[in-house]
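step=encode ok
step=design start
structure_in=
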């Protein structure tokens, strides 16, 4: 399989003017509040028998993206990079996209919308102009932690910019332990799934108040299948964030148990083919058993 969602960060790097990168991350995050580098990631992937991974931005800075591209240049297990550009400035976004797409591994763009104070970020005219540039370059756009503030806006974005491939990370962070909020998530998620330019990630499903097990997550998996079908789903670990809930191997085992209920071609799609197609990864799908 291909791990379509993996992070790296170095808390000691790129400190300028006394400002530390990854400002969302602090001592309150316990074991996450340390460096997670390329060697540790490579060991986790190798131990689990993973073919390769897509690195995904964890900071709304150019430095984070440049760092990931540097890792990609050194390690063949990195199959693609989803980075950050300044979407609220189309002029800067165009310049940054031109620079980053010179690197063959740059495959998508993401912004930490859940940390942005602007509830209307995805509706801003400047952001829409920048995302049209993203689409014109054949890049995907990832939306993290969309529920509750941004899932409806993600639906509108995908509907109104059909040339853009919109990737919903972590199934939008469904509030599985809250039946009332789940009704809202389900309505928005099903609307998103009706749009052919959307893809959802089975990732980041260590949810508050929910045991991390195949049995506990099966209803979500069924919702994802109903809304998107198996050919618009992909699998990701969300490492190292996922380590707060389970080791890398356990995180994948639960997802693989869910996926095992699918036919072989459907499993193949979720485990690698969807990621290859969505991010235009420079690899050939492995033969199906």
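sequence_out=
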């Amino acid at each position: 399989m291909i791990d379509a969602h993996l992070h790296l960060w170095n808390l000691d790097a790129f400190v300028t003017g006394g400002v530390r990168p990854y400002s969302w991350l602090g001592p309150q995050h316990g074991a996450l509040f340390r460096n997670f580098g390329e060697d540790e990631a490579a060991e986790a992937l190798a131990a689990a028998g993973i073919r390769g991974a897509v690195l995904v931005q964890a900071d709304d800075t150019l430095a984070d993206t440049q760092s990931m591209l540097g890792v990609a240049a050194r390690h063949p297990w990195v199959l693609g990079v989803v980075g950050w550009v300044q979407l609220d400035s189309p002029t800067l976004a165009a310049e940054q996209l031109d620079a980053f797409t010179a690197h063959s591994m740059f495959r998508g763009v993401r912004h930490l919308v859940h940390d942005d104070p602007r509830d209307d970020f995805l509706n801003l005219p400047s952001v829409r102009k920048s995302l049209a540039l993203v689409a014109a370059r054949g890049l995907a756009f990832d939306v993290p932690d969309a529920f509750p503030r941004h899932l409806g806006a993600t639906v509108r974005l995908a509907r109104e910019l059909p040339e853009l491939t919109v990737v919903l990370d972590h199934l939008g962070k469904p509030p599985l332990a809250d039946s009332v909020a789940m009704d809202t998530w389900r309505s928005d998620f099903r609307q998103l799934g009706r749009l052919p330019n959307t893809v959802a990630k089975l990732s980041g499903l260590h949810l508050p108040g929910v045991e991390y097990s195949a049995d506990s997550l099966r209803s979500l998996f069924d919702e994802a299948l109903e809304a998107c079908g198996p050919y618009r789903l992909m699998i990701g670990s969300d490492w190292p964030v996922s380590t707060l809930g389970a080791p890398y191997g356990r995180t994948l085992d639960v997802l693989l148990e869910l996926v095992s209920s699918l036919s072989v071609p459907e499993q193949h799609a979720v485990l690698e083919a969807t990621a290859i197609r969505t991010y235009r990864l420079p690899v050939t799908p492995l033969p199906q058993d």
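step=design ok
step=annotate ok -> The first strand starts at residue 2 and ends at 6.
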